[in-house]
Amino acid sequence: MSEPVLLLNCGSSSIKYQVIDMATEEVVASGIIQRIGESESTLDHDFGGSSRHDSLGFPDHAHALAHLVKVFDEVGPKLSEVVAVGHRTVHGGEAFRETTVIDDSVLAKLRELSPLAPLHNPPGIAGIEAAMAVLPDVPHVAVFDTAFFATLPPAAYTYAIDDELAHAHGIRKYGFHGTSHSYVSKKVAEVLGRPYDSFNQIVCHLGNGASISAIQRGVAVDTSMGLTPLAGLVMGTRSGDVDPGLHAFLGRALGIDLNEVDALLNKKSGMLGLCGATDFRDITGLINAGDQRARLAMDVYLHRLVSYVGSYLAILGGVDALTFTAGVGENDALVRAGVVTRLQPLGFRLDEAANAVRSKEPRVISTPDSKVTILVVPTNEELAMARETKAAIG
Ligand code: ADP
């Protein structure tokens, strides 16, 4: 018996989706709607070995999803067989500590949380409302990027600011990419053949967005992203950590308002700001061609990453596994080597031949005498969401 689950990931102008059959955990259909809100939106849908491309104008998520239902009707698979819809939801705030079946009160609470994630939660909510309207008879489930980090201890999640202000506005570290950190860290336990709660690990999720987590005997105890996904590591276009005084400095120096400073740090910083490129294949190409800005960008990226690994080593009191995942972590052997080489004095040893292998499988890339097992584990956020969705509906 098939058990198809529909996964929706609604961004401000796009909807990515997959249908996964939970009986086999295989992807049955997938697609993406792009440029919602523009005069020419596109839909690309793959099912059963054939593809469909539509070019239309979708003014909003509701129109895009209504058209998507039509495409499912005409091309397949049958939406009437879907047993649940899982919605990627970026910010769960303090209210949502786990995957949650959505009802009116959950929706109301999500709307209340919107100020915490103004770029991410409103399109997510629009997607939930539109999907519930077109698929009213199946359970809809919110899978939160923040939920895995609900276990962070107060010492790790509290900012040293006025505590009344913090409580009044829910200002604290939340962490993001939780679905990936959870999936990958559990996969590490499987690969090592050890119970999840029997060892300490650090997971580096290095994609366009990047974050790192410290997991102590199966419990997340720290992570690099904070109140927003801007904090922590250097990313494709996001600065990661900067002096908090930089906002005021830029505001004064450039005469721009806080929203503009925020946009500058989110969209024009990181690797893009440092060297004009965001894709690590391009950055490596620039370095090989002798580009000094790209060299410095890479050094800044690695320095930040290694300083977080060192910090989490101290917080965990020792670590058994260090894992790389997501686009850069899974594919860029030079980044992995750059991190591990810097950690060599602490007993980390890279198996260079294993690191050079390209594969979609989880694998160990450290030598047997390395004090810490180093791994590459491909993430699969959609499958993780589908599992969470299935578990939430029982
Ligand atoms: P997102 O955060 O958008 O989900 P991904 O995890 O898909 O990002 O990562 C995308 C990034 O992965 C690209 O911008 C690029 O820097 C990097 N990447 C993808 N493939 C390779 C590759 N073969 N070599 C090096 N980097 C790669």
Q: What's the CATH architecture name of the largest domain?
A: 2-Layer Sandwich
Shape: globular
Rounded radius of gyration (Å): 21 Å
> What is the makeup of the main sheet?
8 strands, mixed
What is the number of helical segments per DSSP (H or I, 4+ residues)?
15
Total count of domains: 2
- The spatial strand order of the largest sheet comes to 5-4-3-2-1-6-8-7
Quick structural gist:
This is Acetate kinase. The chain is an alpha/beta fold.
Give an account of the 3D structure.
This protein folds into 2 domains: 141 residues, 2-Layer Sandwich (Nucleotidyltransferase, domain 5), CATH 3.30.420; 188 residues, ATPase, nucleotide binding domain (Nucleotidyltransferase, domain 5). 40% of the residues lie in helices and 20% in strands. It is an alpha/beta fold. It has 15 helices and 14 strands. A hairpin with a 4-residue loop joins strand 1 and strand 2. It binds adenosine-5'-diphosphate. The site of adenosine-5'-diphosphate has 13 residues, from helix 10 and helix 12.
